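Hi everyone,

Forwarding the result from last night's run.
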Amino acid sequence: MVQALNINLRFRDGTVDDAERIADLGRQTFAEHFGSQFKRSDLDLYMDRYFSVEKVRKDLQVPDFDYRIAAAGNTLVGYAKIGPATLPLAEPDPNRLQLHRLYVRGARQGVGVGGILLSWAIERAKERGADEICLGVSSNNKRAIKVYESRGFSACGTHEIDVGSARDEELMMTLPLQAEAKSKLSA
């Protein structure tokens, strides 16, 4: 089990009341990480599409999506979101879930917050009966790719996403879940 270095962190499920703070954190961390790669107008278009308060509130109301947030005091420092897979993977699988978001504020990276949120996403996908969990990560985000590989995810292709009028190549990664659970049962 991954532990965070700061004992003041709390982890809990996200609720509709968290929509504004989740949207704000998504916008801030996306801009923090990709601000130098894309024009501001392209970043704004992307963030308006995926990190509007209305979009996050709507997702929080859909039972197919699960959110987990990390907070230090009253400040949201990270979150993860899982739900139905939308990546263009070669083989469709109705029992596949996707890690849609895993964001941690820059000041809180490297202290275990992301690892705890990733562990939650994997365990939650197992609880929901998924055979596999997938994710898309920017091909330029070598640090995140290393983290996912260290947890057993493997690359299975690439695809491009629109960031405003620009394009970003994402690496698609998957982690089989049922084989892992079956091997534990037979041990």
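The radius of gyration is 16 Å.

Cheers,
N.
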